[in-house]
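Exercise: predict the fold of this chain.
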Amino acid sequence: MTAPMTGSATASLAGHMIASLAASLAGSVTAGALLAARARRLATCLIIAALIIAALAGCSTSARPPLTGPQTPGTRANTASTAWPIPVVLRFGGQAVTATLTDTPPSRQLAAMLPLTLHLTDAWGQAKAGPLPHPLDGGTPVHDPIPGEIYFWPSSQMIAVYYDDLGQAVPDPGLIRLGVITTGLDRLAEAGDRITVRVSQTPGGRA
């Protein structure tokens, strides 16, 4: 029969158990801290590796020479190296009208838009006119348009081809002269009230 433990023995045993438990907990905490530290180091290494790979990829891309090749038919002409005046052709309904653009800043801006499709109306009874996709800047205004010439109307951002003179002066800000029709003005005048015109440079006008 086992003798009952004294109070001092019980206290001693409890002390040993508490010490053992504390050591075990301390070990667990230490192991967890080590694992966390290793995880942080691994994450740091992965981040550094990713940054190095990205930097190398960027160097490879920047060092690659630009792609070059012949211009396609739809490529817009370099107007800075084009001989002026530029010959152009206006095509509509199986008809062709030829013209030349003058050597002025607004005419160069128009040439940079070519080829261009225009939707023209004949609301004035003296010109075929329609909006441009972009406005033109500069130029000397005129107030008395001449039949057979091409103009830009800044107040409405419209291009107009005059085919008749009704004796009407154009109010301010006037018109900006862009060019002149060389052949086929009568065909354009008789084309109807609404026409779709494709304007492009003729082969001799390309740089």
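Check your answer against the key: Residues 7-63 form the longest helix (57 residues).
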